[in-house]
Amino acid sequence: MRPGAALAAGLLALAALARPPAAPAADAWLERLDRGLRMETAGGLLRAELSGLFDLEGYVLDRRPPGLIFGDDDPFVNPRLSLFLDTRLGSHLYSLVEARIDRGFDPRAHSSAARFDQYLLRYSPLADGRLNLEVGKFATMIGSWAPRHDSWSNPFINAPLPYENVTVVSDVSVPASRGAFLARRALADRKRQWQPVIWGPSYASGAALFGALGPLEYAAEVKNAAPSSRPEVWDGRARGWRHPTFDGRLGWHPAAAWIVGASAAHGAYLRDDPRGTLPSGRDVDDFPQELIGVDASYAWRHWQLWAEFFASRFDVPRVGDADTIAYYVESRYKLTPMLFAALRWNQQLFGEVKNDRERDRAWDRDIWRLDTAVGYRFNRHLQGKLQYSYAHQRGELQQGEQLVAAQLTVKF
After folding, report:
1. Which residues contact 29 (CB under 8 A, 6 or more apart)?
2. What is the DSSP letter of 22?
3. Which of 59, 105, 339, 385 has the most CB atoms less than 10 A away?
4. What domains can you pick out in the chain, each with its CATH number?
């Protein structure tokens, strides 16, 4: 698709989204539904609320689909229903269960159509939030994007580049040599074998300790899988805890408008001896992923700004250290109380490894991507977004240069 055609398609979709809803009765029905999905015992000891998001997304792609969009380059529609059950018992116990029905965790991934993405139990012994203990399956505490990744909070339809750009590192296929590893650069993304630096919000299973001490936030967690692991292994029953990952984040509020943070993670990213191909006498724990990151956010009047930077190192069998850095800078501006515009610059750069002739070569193709989006919040239940993205990788092989996507979200 040419840029002009992509923009024309985007304008047509925006015009469709911008029409005011002609069904105030539906809005009133959703308000009644909200009230009906809450339950509280006498005295407020037990409180429960069921809420949800229904997303209807449409994608128009050129060439191969980028990031963690699976399938071919045909236009497609992606529906998704997310249900959240929040329960509180007294002032110390909280639980969350999130269930989803869709076409896979990532668009067209064709994984389990109905599943539990999150389930957790949190104990807060103190009333001021200084200490919280959490166990279950829940989003990573690395970085600052995961807390705002759902469709209602995210100004865009997709994730920032560090959370979805697929690299040639694999958790299920060990290269036979350095040359074989470098040869992957000439192939289109094999998304069922290769991994990004962080796979979306990374709902791995484990336990966490977190809280806030004045302007200082802290979080430490142990999970059953590395940040780059794919959704199939996030459940503790799929991978277990034989090869745990340790990660954490420190955050600081120097002023009301600012938040800055630093994150780190260390853990095995390979599956249990993939296909029996690990070097003799070696174990998956000998080949970790190491990750460090910094993040910052700022809010002032109509502006919101976010930025994250990650440096990741994969220890690849028969290859050695494969280093990469990835970052994004994102902004959202409220044009009116209901209309916003967003812009995001993303980039990922790859280090060098030696080939079979002992010459240094970049182990993957550098990439940059520009994301633009507009969104309109019709009311507290209905939101529409339109996004256009343009990306470019070093070399002739491109993994989807242009993307036009529209999303309609119903919140209840």
Report:
1. none
2. S
3. 385
4. 3-33+59-78+133-411 (2.40.160)
